[in-house]
């Protein structure tokens, strides 16, 4: 079924995002998406850089929404290696083995993990673009587990764990670890984040009848406006954006 989308809601737990488009986009036209992919391959190098930046922004948004949908993930874990680890491929293999061991002990494990390179500093105090060792920032739903036990499960170095309290938008907090360093060439064609498959996901409402029903349900008495902006899209014209938090 094909239909035009003039506005939509994205509901991620208690966070509601409202988009309004000057020009509609259409759902259900696979030929159009194939044409856009071909157009991307023909882009200049400077335009490709812009596309990569957009990809990181989309990844950051995806993580933020996943985290806001799974509010039981309140432990923040950092994994580091006890020796220099600059190979993302090797580091990811060790990370996946750690997740398998942890999941056997805690079958209901939910997580979102972001790999990051520590910045090496050169003689002049600048961050080397391809330096540093890999480490991982993970938001997960572990019960209380002693740090020594997690470190033993990790087997590859040191860990740090803390509980997240009183952060209004935990997704935004976690996404600060997905930044400019993810333009590093070592991330090319590699995952920028990992997630468990049992996470709740956002609800997208973009069909006219369903949209009107949901907009009628939301009111100033049930939510608070947290942020609003507008921006110009090459494809959609002026886009109006508002983010709300639902009252609990």
Shape: globular
Number of strands: 10
Write down the Rg.
Answer: 21 Å
Quickly count the domains: 2
CATH class descriptor name of the largest domain: Alpha Beta
Looking at the structure, the CATH topology of the largest domain is: Alpha-Beta Plaits
Quote the beta fraction. 25-35%
Number of helices in the DSSP assignment: 6
Helix content: 25-40%
Mean pLDDT: 82
What attributes does this structure have?
Alpha-Beta Plaits; 5-stranded antiparallel sheet; 31% strand
What is this structure, in a nutshell?
By secondary structure, this protein is of the alpha+beta class. The chain has helices at residues 30-41, 45-69, 88-105, 147-154, 170-175, 208-217, and strands spanning 3-12, 15-27, 75-81, 111-117, 134-140, 157-163, 194-195, 203-205, 223-233, 237-246.
Explain what this protein looks like in three dimensions.
With 248 residues, the protein is α+β, with helices and mostly antiparallel strands. The protein has two domains: 3-68 and 201-246, no CATH class; 71-195, Alpha-Beta Plaits (2-Layer Sandwich). 32% of the residues lie in helices and 31% in strands. It contains six helices and ten strands, in the order ββααβαββαβαββαββ. The protein has helices at 30-41, 45-69, 88-105, 147-154, 170-175, 208-217, and strands at residues 3-12, 15-27, 75-81, 111-117, 134-140, 157-163, 194-195, 203-205, 223-233, 237-246. The strands form two sheets. Strands 8-1-2-10-9 form a five-stranded antiparallel β-sheet. A five-stranded antiparallel β-sheet has the order 6-3-5-4-7, sandwiched between helices. A hairpin with a 2-residue loop joins strand 1 and strand 2 (15-27). The chain is globular and about 55 Å long. It starts with a strand and ends with a strand.
């Amino acid at each position: 079924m094909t239909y035009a989308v003039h506005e939509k809601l994205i509901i991620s737990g208690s966070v509601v995002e409202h988009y309004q488009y000057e020009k509609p986009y259409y759902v259900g036209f696979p030929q159009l998406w194939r044409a856009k992919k071909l157009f991307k391959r023909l882009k200049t190098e400077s335009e490709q850089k812009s596309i990569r930046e957009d990809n990181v922004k989309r990844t950051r948004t995806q993580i933020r929404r996943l985290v806001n949908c799974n509010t039981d993930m309140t432990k923040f874990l950092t994994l580091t290696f006890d020796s220099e680890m600059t190979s993302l491929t090797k580091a990811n293999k060790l990370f996946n083995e750690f997740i398998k061991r942890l999941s056997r002990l805690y079958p209901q494990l939910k997580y979102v993990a972001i790999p990051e390179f520590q910045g090496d500093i050169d003689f002049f105090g600048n961050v080397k673009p391809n330096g540093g060792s890999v480490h991982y920032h993970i938001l997960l739903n572990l019960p209380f587990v002693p740090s020594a036990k997690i470190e033993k499960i990790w087997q590859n170095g040191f860990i740090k764990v803390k509980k997240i309290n009183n952060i209004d938008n935990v997704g935004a907090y976690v996404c600060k670890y997905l930044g400019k360093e993810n333009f590093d060439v070592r991330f090319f064609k590699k995952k920028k984040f990992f997630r468990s498959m049992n996470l709740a996901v956002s609800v997208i409402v973009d069909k006219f009848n369903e949209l009107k029903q949901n907009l009628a349900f939301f009111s100033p008495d049930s939510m608070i406006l947290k942020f609003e902006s507008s921006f110009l899209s090459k494809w959609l014209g002026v886009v109006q954006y508002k983010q709300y938090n639902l009252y609990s």
